[in-house]
Amino acid sequence: MDGMKTSWVDRLFKRQWTSERIAKYIGAYRSCWLAYALDEDIRLNAASGGTITGLLAHLLETGEIDGALVCTSQVVGNEVQAGYRIATTREELLAAQGSKYMETHFSGEAVPLIEAFQGKLALTLLPCDTWTVNRMRQNRPEIDAKIRLTIALFCGHISDPGLTRLVVRKAKPAGVSLTSFRNRIGHWRGKLRFGFEDGSTKEKPFSAFSDYQNLYFFCARKCLRCHDHTGYDCDLSVGDVWLMAMKDNPIKHNAVIARSARAEADLQSALAAGKLNLQPVPVELVADAQARSLPMHYNVTARAQAGKLWGVKVSDPVNERVRLVDYLVAAVILFNYRWTSTPKGRVMVGRLPRLLIKLYLYALKALEVL
Ligand SMILES: Cc1cc2nc3c(=O)[nH]c(=O)nc-3n(C[C@H](O)[C@H](O)[C@H](O)COP(=O)(O)OP(=O)(O)OC[C@H]3O[C@@H](n4cnc5c(N)ncnc54)[C@H](O)[C@@H]3O)c2cc1C
Ligand code: SF4
Questions:
Q1: Does residue 340 lie within any of the structural domains?
Q2: Over the stretch 76-109, which tens digit does the pLDDT of each residue have?
Q3: What is the whole-number distance in angstroms between the Cα of residue 272 and the centre of ligand 2?
Q4: Does residue 302 share a domain with residue 285?
Q5: Which of 36, 78, 105, 161 is the most exposed place for a label (fewest CB within 10 A)?
């Protein structure tokens, strides 16, 4: 990428990406890009570079789509809840920005919206939601006909709402109700922002949430058996760029994988209209930007084997080689998953000092890069 210096940390952790590994971890693709929205208002509350919202706003403006399925969040009685809506205006797209890391009910909530909508649609999906959508498209031509573009977010895993509840409980002053909550505002890993009924706001580093999440505390059960990190079966996959070389870049960028001709045409149209900044990159750079997560996410076999230690049954669709270190990482993940699957475990983990959580996470990360 133009002007991007490689950092010694990135060089240290660089892996060899053979075509076999790329096929396993990334799947089929036509081109890869680093991208961001050129509109600063779109970047302001974006999860990363605002590429998804920038592209969706452009497709709405040009009449290529009539609506976009997005994921929303709201606070009800101090509980943060995630849901869906079909956005038909730029304002609705902006209101739905940011990553929602808590479990949703895609079949029960998003599918009826898609069924009822009259017009051309783009869908923002987690990789597992693309499986549901693609099954539906195969069996129902009327649904297939209205879906114009599918965009999958790269996905490490999603969490049970209990994790957000824990983080809110730690941040909320006594006697004041929570009225708003946003994940990952701002640069690099970003901040959590809480709004309260008295008009006050509070920010905390995103690590107040992600340290628990990256240790797989409160992980949703379905994610244990998932090997699809980037959304093999969509038109466009969009994620973050976790390269130290990007840490000081004032603009967060997205890693983008175009898998269909339609996705490439939409990106080029947004580029020509001055809506997106796009730079072509080799697929290896996208893999480098997810170097720790890709092999670990794919290796369901390690989780299936380690699950036996803790009595958690995980079905294995990949039959991958398991090194000792893969087994150890999976054993920690499965232990932490199991621990916070009980009410007593959740309380105990919530009481652990943050320093201990941080040290535990560093130890797991050290194992993951081996
Ligand atoms: C659960 C989860 C795990 C993720 N894990 C990784 C990871 O491991 N590595 C990585 O590189 N990136 C990951 N991402 C993706 C990343 O956080 C950004 O969402 C992505 O890079 C898009 O950035 P953006 O600036 O273009 O998004 P924005 O412009 O903010 O747009 C994001 C769009 O996605 C929609 N959306 C948000 N959450 C969901 C959801 N749960 N389901 C469906 N649609 C949703 C929003 O409504 C919005 O329309 C994850 C995202 C989620 C939700
Ligand atoms: S890890 Fe897989 S199963 Fe879990 S939310 Fe992400 S895509 Fe879905």
A1: yes
A2: 999 999 999 999 999 999 999 999 999 999 999 9
A3: 33
A4: no
A5: 105
